[in-house]
Amino acid sequence: MSPTATALQTPPTLPPAFELTPDQRDILVAADRYAQAELYPLSRRMDDEEWWPAEAFAQLGPAGYLGITIPQAYGGAGLDLLSAGLVAQAMGRWNHAFALSWVAHDNLCTFNIYRHANEAQRRRFLPGLCNGSLLGALALTEPGAGSDALGSMRVSARRDGDHYVLNGSKIFITNGPVADVLLTYAKTAPELGTHGVSAFIVERNSPGFTVAQKLSKMGFRGSQTGELVFNNCRVPAENRLGAEHGGLGIVMSGLDFERATIAPICLGIAERALQLAIEHAKTRKQFGRPIAEFEMIQAKIADMYVWIETMRTFIYRVLAAADGASADEAGRGTIHALSAASVMYAAESMARVVSEAVQIHGGGGYIWESEVNRLFRATKLLEIGAGTTEIRKLIISRELLGSSMPQ
Description:
This protein has about 400 residues and is an alpha+beta fold.
């Protein structure tokens, strides 16, 4: 049958609508209070100086905000993915740069290690990642491999006795300059293409591992991003995560959980932007009265509210659906499309909300030092990271079109 004659697959069915449980509401309220009290005061300096507050991060473990989805037996909180998303949302409201580093640690690194590690690896790495004595990162992107991260991967890993020897470089790695534990992907069988990738837990003190540079960014400036170099870097074979050449499945399933958990940062940023816009509209006077009395401003605030509420519903529903997805189900099918759709819609809606907030602030919103300007400079990354908007659209369309989609 020709591609044009192939019927579309049934669109994915969303889980039923729901409300947060009392426990989940308590988690959001508590995380919001913590983030406002402890993280918000750090946000200005983090942006001005690209400063990383290591002590503040270490305090998250004792406060109960690390290892959210990790069982208590390994030092985690033993909660679900939606609860983790609520923490990300709260942090995103008050310090989005810190929130991004938190997600890179708690989801991209820690959660992935838990899902794919053997028992010895879990016992060795998870307690430190959950108590804050270790900081985690995910090292996937390379200078020549962005959207085609696996197909164009050049970092190699060669078996040498009880070790693997890694060579190559990674770039745009969130937490890279400060991480103690890096979940790293490398080609162990280049001739197999994307099926020749393996995952490794690389420790910061591994011989041959260096941080080449810390990158300066337009937004999320306090969240440390860097280029990493592996020069005959020796990694014990016992640090390989999963089977040799088994990295493809780890990457693909991990990206779905990553996208579902990053989307709440967009929600938190948008919520804060609306709050700032309302406060400014009530206090800023033009033509003898507050600008909140003008219908144009009221219309903007109404639009922002609707965008935020639709974001919230979609994000929560996808988090709940992702939490019920097994490692075999993630990376394909309904949850693959839903997670891509969630972060795509969240990022685009957040960008609209923040843009309108800047417009309401007028000239003050264009000043670098203003908080709404800091939010505005952050928006573009969330349309690029964890797969660009264009890649997200490809994922959604291919899942909907199935075999009729050209490869």
